[in-house]
Design brief:
By secondary structure, the chain is mainly α. The protein has one domain. Helices cover 77% and strands 0% of the residues. The chain has seven helices and no strands. Helix 1 packs across helix 2, helix 2 packs antiparallel against helix 3 and helix 5 runs parallel beside helix 7. It is elongated and about 60 Å long.
Length: 136
């Protein structure tokens, strides 16, 4: 690492997770197409309330990569909170390309489907609890 130019050293530090700037690290992870690192830094920006700052001025190509990653992560329950918060922040952005808008609409439809399943399971659980309680 000592033989690398300074910019390259900074990039290595950011992508490795040792940077104190999660916004820059998130953008670099997206540029490198590193899905696990992107999720890590996405959660870090959410924890530090810097997600809007990270999305501000982000190029359409990086937003497209992020949206593709969100489509994958949205199907996993453990990532749903980060996905929903990121999706909400993306929808607050004023300029979203039509291509990205279509992908976001697909994620919203998938999220609504998941929420309907959760609501149905909650209702079934409540009914089962009631029946078991009445049985003694």
């Amino acid at each position: 690492m000592t033989n690398c130019p300074i910019e390259e050293q900074e990039e290595i530090v950011c992508v490795s997770g040792n940077s104190s700037d999660p916004v820059l690290s998130l953008r670099l992870a997206l540029q490198h197409g590193n899905k696990p690192r992107t999720l890590f830094f996405l959660k870090k920006t959410l924890a530090e309330n810097t997600l809007d700052q990270a999305l501000e001025g982000m190029s359409d190509s990086l937003v497209k990569i992020l949206v593709v990653f969100l489509q994958d992560w949205c199907s996993l329950f453990k990532n749903i909170s980060a996905c929903q918060k990121t999706l909400s922040a993306l929808l607050r952005r004023s300029q979203i390309s039509p291509q990205n808008r279509d992908a976001i609409d697909q994620i919203v439809a998938l999220s609504e489907k998941h929420l309907a399943k959760i609501e149905k399971l909650s209702t079934q659980t409540a009914l089962l609890d009631l029946v078991l309680f009445q049985m003694g």
